């Protein structure tokens, strides 16, 4: 049975980290909210799982994955579940745990990127918290972004064999879901904060090489060129507000 | 060999979620940063793992756990690793994944509690972002706290058998690490935001019963009465600033 991915239909957001894994592995999946409500898909199908009291183990939020009777929320937990089934993580328990740990740290950074434009409340418009966003973004560019990027670069530096690889890997020697997530993360940062990203990435050659190399994987290249790939936009997590960049 | 827990010595913070699991299981562990630097413990031992380039897989931040050659960062990942070894999670993969998913959602709430007093930057004092904190806290009390609490209550309601249990369980029929984390979360919320917490907990009888019942477990009761249990304080994540409560 096909995997069902449930996520907001108009933004890449957190759903894209799962979508990239499904696409890179050539997995059979349904992008539920982008389907037709007449066929039991669309937003109502997602809202049912989130809101109906008959669901025994309701996710707190999307994205979530439905695989038969299993419902899994939390982006990193979805990838922890999917990656062994898709061949996108090494076999050893220690490697899988390390991959998950890196993924959770990526999730923390993604959350901070969201807080950039919503430092006060997700329930308010950006325009209603712009003064606070300007302050938060200045700190993010100065303190947080360099800290996360230098950690990601250190992970790449310390992964044995990366000096000899054309495309470095985050965990192990082969493409893993963590590489896909790092690709998406760097892509989003370059969209949202082009100036600040260019500055920090100058000091991160392995991360830059990973971002350039990952999308050359055959299936991923086809996906990225397709209509299934959603562009970044100002409804999502990675938003380009020029006043927040410098 | 004893587990090594690495975390800031003066606050319960995120380290407490791991400590509660170790204590409830009666595990052999060393609380590294609270030990003596003369004996190779204390803060320098933690900073070595975080900062030394010889560490092959460095955590991004504390808490982290060292178990022989395995180093695990990210609170929820530490508990994912530890719980089966400590007998604090059901056996079935689906149950473990659900427990992890709930734990990751608790982690999201803990992060929002931190952002309450640091909405602009962790690198600034609370006093330097108090105006923003007042605004953020108002939204948190009105929107976010009730949403998280009603989800936690729904998880308890939908866990079969909880009506008949004196102390309800988050996952399965026996005490799990998720119960311990929820206990700590409710404890922290009651400390930080006593008025807002009282209001939302009135509508969450199972959550209230869990919080009251968990600390009666024998080992946990001994731990909570010991000097090993750190009190909440205004250096930690759960801080009581009366102006943020209402």
Architecture overview:
2 copies of one chain form a homodimer. By secondary structure, chain A is an alpha+beta fold. Chain A contains 9 helices and 4 strands; from the N terminus they run E-H-E-H-E-E-H-H-H-H-H-H-H. In chain A, helix 1 packs across helix 6 (177-192), helix 3 (75-86) packs antiparallel against helix 4 and helix 5 runs parallel beside helix 7 (194-201). Chain A binds chain B through residues 53, 55-60, 70, 72-74, 76-77, 80-81, 94, 97-98, 100-101, 104-105, 108, 111, 115, 119-124, 129, 132, 135-136, 139, 143, 148, 151, 154-155, 158, and chain B through 53, 55-60, 70, 72-74, 76-77, 80-81, 94, 97-98, 100-101, 104-105, 108, 111, 115, 119-124, 129, 132, 135-136, 139, 143, 148, 151, 154-155, 158.
Which ranges of chain A are low-confidence, i.e. pLDDT below 50, for 5 or more consecutive residues? none
Q: Could you state the order of secondary-structure elements of chain A as H and E?
A: EHEHEEHHHHHHH
Structure classification of chain A: alpha+beta
User: Could you say how many structural domains of chain A there are in total?
Assistant: 2
Quaternary organization? homodimer
- The main sheet of chain A orders its strands as 2-1-3-4
Annotation, overall tally of beta strands of chain A: 4
| Radius of gyration based on Cα positions of chain A | 18 Å
- Provide a count of the helices of chain A: 9
CATH topology of the largest domain in chain A: Glutathione S-transferase Yfyf (Class Pi), Chain A, domain 2
The top-level CATH class of the largest domain in chain A is Mainly Alpha
Q: What is the overall pLDDT average of chain A?
A: 97
Named CATH architecture of the largest domain in chain A = Up-down Bundle
Domain GST N-terminal (chains A, B): 1-90
InterPro entries (chains A, B): Glutathione-S-Trfase_C-like (IPR010987), Glutathione-S-Trfase_C_sf (IPR036282), Glutathione_S-Trfase_N (IPR004045), GST_C (IPR004046), GST_superfamily (IPR050213), Thioredoxin-like_sf (IPR036249)
Protein name (chains A, B): Glutathione S-transferase
Organism (chains A, B): Ramlibacter alkalitolerans
């Amino acid at each position: 049975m096909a995997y069902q991915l449930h996520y907001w239909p108009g933004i890449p957001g957190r759903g894209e980290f799962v979508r990239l894994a499904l696409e890179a592995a050539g997995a059979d999946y349904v992008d539920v909210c982008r389907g037709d409500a007449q066929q039991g898909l669309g937003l109502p199908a997602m809202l049912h799982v989130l809101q109906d009291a008959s669901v025994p183990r309701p996710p707190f939020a999307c994205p979530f994955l439905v695989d038969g009777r299993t419902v899994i929320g939390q982006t990193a937990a979805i990838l922890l579940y999917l990656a062994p089934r898709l061949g996108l993580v090494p076999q050893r328990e220690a490697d899988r745990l390390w991959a998950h740990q890196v993924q959770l740290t990526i999730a923390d950074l993604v959350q901070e990127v969201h807080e950039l434009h919503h430092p006060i409340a997700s329930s308010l418009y950006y325009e209603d918290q712009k003064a606070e966003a300007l302050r938060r973004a200045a700190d993010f560019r100065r303190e947080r972004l360099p800290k996360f990027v230098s950690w990601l670069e250190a992970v790449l530096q310390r992964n044995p064999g990366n000096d000899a690889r054309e495309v470095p890997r985050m965990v192990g020697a082969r493409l893993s879901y963590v590489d896909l997530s790092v690709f998406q993360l760097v892509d989003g940062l370059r969209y949202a904060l082009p100036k600040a990203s260019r500055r920090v990435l100058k000091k991160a050659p392995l991360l830059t090489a990973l971002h350039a190399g990952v999308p050359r994987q055959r299936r991923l290249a086809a996906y990225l060129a397709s209509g299934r790939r959603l562009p970044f936009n100002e409804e999502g997590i990675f938003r380009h507000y020029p006043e927040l960049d410098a």
